[in-house]
Amino acid sequence: MKDMVTLGRTGITVNKNGFGALPVQRVSKEEAIRLVHKAYDGGVRFFDTARAYSDSEEKLGAAFDGMREKVYIATKTAALTVEGFWKDLETSLAILKTDYIDIYQFHNPAFCPKPGDGSGLYEAMLEAKAQGKIRHIGITNHRLTVAMEAIESGLYETLQFPFCYLATKKDIEVEEACSKAGMGFIAMKALSGGLITDSRAAYAYLAQYPNVLPIWGVQRETEMDEFLSYVENPPVYTKEIEAFIEKEKKQLSGDFCRGCGYCMPCPAGIEINNCARMSLMIRRAPSAAWLDEAGQARMNKIDGCIGCNKCKAKCPYGLDTPNLLKKNLKDYREVLAGKTVV
Ligand code: SF4
Ligand code: SF4
Fold first, then answer.
1. Where do the 4Fe-4S ferredoxin-type domain residues begin and end (predicted)?
2. Looking at the predicted structure, is the pLDDT value of residue 303 above 80?
3. Burial of 49 (0-12, 13-18, 19+ CB in 10 A)
4. Is the confidence at residue 287, as pLDDT, over 90?
């Protein structure tokens, strides 16, 4: 039987396999359309994109041309001005080839937009809703404080927040507060930016939360096939999965980089979102791809860090990013020199 979820007051009810459309930026338009259609044919009905995901909206627009009403589309604006808000919304509507967005979300703002705060952003959301251009108002965030403020404000119908089996007690409190407030909870980073590779465990963990809709940002078609098989046969949380997750938590506990990229760009050109978690990547994924010449050139850039601390200031997880980079570089060089990877 399908696992269904209703996103709080929005009434949007779909199975627990949302489609995160960030990775379709990396494939051709034809391939993206094929993948999106494959997801739709497999039962996926909720698609999440963003103005900031380059041509992701355009690809969804092309995929759903002529069948818009059969799916739910959520997108996002990172605009900080009213003018920017309307420009983003009109652009999204045009390239998604639609006259409405199901959930329009503020994209990870550093503050929680509210009426009368002087930004005019929330008022613009209300106006867009009154005009029928958006159906529901949502917010996405990586910061616990902004997420909690959004829940407490009563102004938002959905929250999109990182949530996976590595969730901390505080993350779980956000989900609980969201449910209590009748807000839909959309889980991003449910595979923790590629660190979680067991989709069955990832799904089963989130299946325990009836109010949570994960949007899987799949990178490979084999992963998509796995999630599509879960539409009809959802994995359940067993003792074995619980034991596996406990083991994973021990390996991935504490201050690790989630690869979100919010600290970028780096003035020294360091690819922080991969380099600051290289020690984990080379131990968890096939390591050869990270250790080749291109990988080494990427890591060697860490030597050029100018210590501006801009990354540290922007990291929503409070990481000491420059030091984390140095630690990862040291370990990487040791691995290249022959240290056994355990
Ligand atoms: S501290 Fe180093 S890594 Fe961080 S943004 Fe500045 S130059 Fe880049
Ligand atoms: S250092 Fe922080 S902001 Fe940068 S990619 Fe990692 S988790 Fe994200």
1. 295-327
2. yes
3. buried
4. no
Does some domain include residue 264?
no
CA 191/CA 201 separation, integer angstroms: 10
Instruction: Give the domain extent around 119.
Output: 4-241
Please state whether beta strands 13-15 and 4-6 pair in parallel, antiparallel, or not at all (unpaired): antiparallel
How many domains does one find in the chain? 2
Q: Tell how far the Cα of 95 is from the centroid of ligand 2, in angstroms.
A: 30
> What global pTM score does this model have?
0.84
Tell me, using a 6 A CB cutoff, whether residue 309 lines ligand 1: yes
Work out the percent of the chain whose per-residue pLDDT is above 70: 98
- Angle, CA 274 vertex, CA 273 and CA 276 arms, to 5°: 75
Q: What is the mean pLDDT of residues 15-43?
A: 91
The response to whether residue 273 sits with its C-beta less than 6 Å from ligand 2 reads: yes
Query: pLDDT tens, 322-340?
Result: 999 999 999 999 999 988 8
Structural domain includes residue 251: no
Q: What angle do CA 145, 146, 150 make, to 5 degrees?
A: 120
Closest CA to 303 of 273, 274, 330, 264: 330
- Residue 304 resides in a domain: yes
Indicate whether 65 and 156 sit together in one domain: yes
Q: For residue 270, give the ligand nearest its CA.
A: 1
Query: Ligand 1 centre and the CA of 274: distance in Å?
Result: 14
CATH, residue 208: 3.20.20.100
Closest ligand, as measured to the CA of 310: 1
> What average pLDDT does the chain have?
92
CA of 162 to the centre of ligand 1 (A): 24
pLDDT 10s digits, 41-58: 999 999 999 999 889 999
